[in-house]
Structure formats: structure tokens, C-alpha cells
Amino acid sequence: xxxxxxxxxxxxxxxxxxxxxxxxxxxxxxxxxxxxxxxxxxxxxxxxxxxxxxxxxxxxxxxxxxxxxxxxxxxxxxxxxxxxxxxxxxxxxxxxxxxxxxxxxxxxxxxxxxxxxxxxxxxxxxxxxxxxxxxxxxxxxxxxxxxxxxxxxxxxxxxxxxxxxxxxxxxxxxxxxxxxxxxxxxxxxxxxxxxxxxxxxxxxxxxxxxxxxxxxxxxxxxxxxxxxxxxxxxxxxxxxxxxxxxxxxxxxxxxxxxxxxxxxxxxxxxxxxxxxxxxxxxxxxxxxxxxxxxxxxxxxxxxxxxxxxxxxxxxxxxxxxxxxxxxxxxxxxxxxxxxxxxxxxxxxxxxxxxxxxxxxxx
Length: 362
Prior knowledge:
This protein is mainly β. The protein contains five helices and 24 strands.
């Protein structure tokens, strides 16, 4: 049993890499290398002491976990909970994985933050903070010159380090994101959704693995009693094995519509809830704005393409009452970090339809 505090374990995890970067043949490539550990019990933002100029290239390799509940096995890794900003005015951003290499777009001191539960502004003001167990740690490398070449050299010097290998793989094989779909800024960038060709058709693929993301296609159209959302999907693996209407089991893959009153409806394939079950999101903050509708249930039909049509006006009226005037976005959602599992789905032929009008969104 490892009885070391997580802060010590994380320092020990990264110290050999830091030494390799600063004392060996790699030193000429490195302007600065520093290990920073963020305990979950402290407020979100920590000044790393690394000053960046616009154009500087920096690599971040991160590990650890923040624990919300030991009893419920609720914990999150750096892919979800490690955020950063350059200077106190931000904006905030996070990496798509545990590793990242990026070019500073402004001058300022690099700050690291533990996700507090909800950002209220783009520069990192927040609701809730601190008081959590666990810790996140990161090795920060400010390169002299090209960051990709620096990571390649580090991988040659430390070929057994899994994070270094993962970052080199990410850099050399970037994902293709679906055109016109953007992540929600307050959830961060994502590589979870990718553009692909499957069975001779263009699809948006979602393969979450112990992570969560939302991408949005901006829309501006009226909501009428005839407005329909149509799409095709193939769910190969459900991320939850239990009913998704509790916080510890709230893993799912879905399509959603955002309205001009700040509400959204999301339709998904449930592992266990009866079809047409409607429930409010069990997550804090989201419980004020999101409503789920289970439109398929169980394992029958998994692995096969299905086509869906939903009357948005009728669904909203049934779930929430008087419908709003306009639709402002369509989302794709994938969540798998509550049960630490994985899911697999493909979406195609997404459209908003009214008599005499069709808005294609894929």
C-alpha cells in the first residue's frame, strides 16, 4: 500500500524527467523545467512562476487525481480538472488530454488551476473552490525554440515514460475535428469528437474514455409546433451500465438542443431507464438548465444504425411547459468519467426540419 501523500508521489513521478531536461544533453533545448503540484484542498489558481512571452512554446505533462467522494469512487484526472491561463485575465483553457504542447498567445505568468465546478467568466472567476481531496501534478517545460522537436528529443532520451510517449503520439497524429462544431468554452477544448468515414458515410464519432465533452453547432432559427430534430446514430457501447439519472452513474452519449431561454433538452440511449423517461440533470449547476429524455433503452439494437425524429415543440412542452421562441444551438454530448468507463457512438445526418425548410448540421 502506498502511504505517501499524493503531493510527494507526484513530485517523485516527474523529478527524473525534470533532471533529464536540465542536466543532460537536452538542457540546451530547455529554457525552464519545473514541477508544480496542486492539492485539491487549495483554491483554484496557482502561479507557477514561469513567465511567458508571446510565441514561447511550452509542454505540460500531468498526472494525479482530484477526489470528490471516496465512497462513491468519484474522482477526476488532469484531462478534466487541470486548467490554465496566462496572466490573471486569462482566458482560461485546458488541454484535451493529460499532455499538451502549445504556443503562448500572449505575455504573462503561467497559472494552473483546479476546476472549481463552474467558471463564471472567461478569465477564471468561478463558483465553488477548494476543499477537495487528492492532488494534480504537472511537469512544465518552456522550450528554447520548437516544442515539437523538444518533445521528440525528450522521447528519445526517456523512451519508457508513458506521458512523453503519449504527447509525441498526439503531436504526430492529430485528430480531425468535425467542421463547424465548437466546444463550450467553460468545458474546454476536446479531441473526443472526431470526423470520420464509416460505412460509406461521413460521421461524427464519439469515443469517450473516462472523460466528458460537449461540442456545439451554432443555430439561430425559430421553434414552431412543426420543428423536428432528425439524426442517425449507431451506438456500439454505452458508457454506463446502470440508470443514468444519479450522479455516480451519469455517463451517457446524446444529442441536445439549446434554446434561447438557457434551457436544453438532450435525447440519449439509456442502459436501463424505460423509453421516454424524462428527468432533470442530477449534476449541480446543470440541474438548472438541462433535461434528459431516454428515447431508447437496453442493449437491443446496439451496433446497428437507427434513425430518430423528435418534435422539439412537443418534447419541450411535455418536459418543461411553455416552449421558448428560438433554437440557438445543437450539441453533441459524451460523458464517461463518473463510472470511469468508455463509450462508442457515431452520428450522421443531423438536421433541423420544418415544413419547406431543412437545416443540415453534420
